[in-house]
Design brief:
Layout: H1 5-26, H2 32-66
Helix pairs in contact: 1-2
Length: 67
């Protein structure tokens, strides 16, 4: 993989955050509580994606060792 699992998780979480924020900005529904919720969503998506991509990376490494 060209990207490490941390960078890929950060890319995914950033894209989710940007899409969510831009969608709220376009419908003029930007509030401080929504921004705080987006930040919490960013952190949770990042942590879940990082762990998921780490497990997939380890699975691929172990598969290569077996083959």
């Amino acid at each position: 993989m060209n990207f490490s699992y941390r960078e890929l998780a950060l890319l995914l979480a950033t894209m989710v955050f940007i899409v969510s924020f831009v969608a709220k900005f376009l419908i003029y529904d930007v509030k401080l509580t929504y921004i705080a919720r987006d930040i919490i969503m960013f952190l949770s998506v990042y942590l879940i994606a990082k762990n998921l991509f780490f497990m997939i990376d380890k699975l691929i490494i172990n598969y290569r060792k077996i083959m």
